[in-house]
Backbone:
């Protein structure tokens, strides 16, 4: 086999010319429907010709530099033979030069249909060799490494982004849980608010009754000073004087009792309003007290004191006896302090 460097430039040029001539051939030009008519037009030859041309097009002109002289001759021979076959389609005539044009046409089509297999068997090793020689494997390796690194960078970025999103989601979940807990406590506080509002309304009603009764008592006291001046009520003897005095005392006592009853109801409702308003405000801040305790033992003490402050009777100033405070917080605090050393000893 001849050395590639010793190949004649003219042979390389002639092979390149033969290959490029086939590659640039237009297969639609062999139809020739205008010259041959619809009956003898080579419409069915276009697709087989295009298939063979595409096979030659897999060999680039630059690939010829890789082949020795024998392979160049092989490529040139196949290209020239196929181009000569195409020329027979271009020069086909149906006049007296062809004794039987139809048989000649079918013979030409038969040769063209089997030509792809012949060319493929001849040049496919050359196509494979040219593809391998022209392929830059170092570039492929570089691209593969770059693609791998890019994939790693993307994966790392996604992992970091997912981690950040997870932290954000965890924070949102914590806030939602906290809001739900506060909402739950606030929802319970609404009961105390409704009760306080109801007592406030009742206290205003009893305040009106107390005011009207006090005004009535004052008017009766003023009237009683001058009632004996009225001729009908004017006593004429000691018996009538005693009867008038007793009547005035009874009426004054009844009105005074009604005033006292109205005042007590007013004070009672105001007391209950203040107590329930206090419990509403205390329950609204209950969650903040629970979150402020860092240790469980401290949290128990804080929550117990808070619960006692909320639910135990409170001094409001409206009631004379509001009840004493429960000693449960101090007891629980004492028990907690006792349990802590025991746990430490264990």
Residues:
């Amino acid at each position: 086999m001849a050395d590639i460097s010793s190949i004649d430039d003219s042979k390389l040029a002639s092979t390149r010319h033969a290959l490029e001539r086939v590659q640039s051939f237009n297969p639609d030009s062999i139809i020739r429907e205008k010259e041959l008519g619809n009956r003898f037009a080579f419409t069915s030859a276009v697709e087989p010709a295009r298939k063979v041309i595409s096979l030659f097009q897999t060999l680039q002109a630059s690939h010829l530099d890789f082949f020795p002289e024998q392979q160049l001759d092989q490529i040139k021979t196949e290209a020239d033979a196929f181009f000569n076959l195409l020329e027979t389609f271009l020069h086909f005539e149906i006049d007296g030069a062809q004794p039987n044009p139809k048989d000649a046409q079918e013979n030409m089509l038969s040769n063209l249909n089997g030509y792809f297999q012949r060319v493929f068997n001849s040049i496919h090793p050359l196509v494979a060799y040219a593809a391998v020689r022209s392929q830059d494997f170092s570039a492929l390796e570089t691209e593969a490494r770059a693609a791998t690194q890019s994939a790693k960078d993307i994966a790392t970025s996604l992992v970091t982004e997912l981690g950040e999103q997870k932290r954000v989601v965890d924070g949102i979940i914590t806030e939602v849980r906290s809001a739900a807990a506060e909402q739950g406590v606030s929802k319970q506080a609404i009961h105390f608010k409704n009760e306080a509002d109801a007592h406030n309304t009742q206290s205003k009603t009893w305040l009106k009754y107390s005011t009207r009764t006090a005004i009535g008592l004052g008017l009766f006291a003023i009237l009683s000073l001058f009632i004996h001046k009225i001729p009908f009520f004017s006593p004429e003897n000691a018996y009538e004087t005693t009867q008038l005095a007793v009547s005035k005392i009874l009426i004054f006592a009844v009105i005074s009792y009604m005033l006292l009853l109205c005042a007590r109801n007013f004070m009672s409702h105001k007391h209950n309003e203040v107590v329930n308003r206090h419990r509403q405000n205390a329950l609204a801040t209950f969650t903040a007290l629970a979150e402020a305790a860092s240790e469980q033992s401290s949290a128990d003490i804080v929550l117990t004191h808070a619960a006692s402050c909320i639910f135990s009777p409170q001094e409001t100033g409206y009631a004379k006896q509001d009840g004493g405070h429960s000693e449960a917080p101090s007891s629980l605090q004492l028990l907690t302090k006792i349990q802590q050393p025991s746990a430490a000893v264990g």
Summary: Residues 1-6, 323-329, 334-339, 341-346 have pLDDT under 50 and may be disordered. The two ends are 96 Å apart (CA to CA). The CA atoms of residues 125 and 202 lie 107 Å apart.
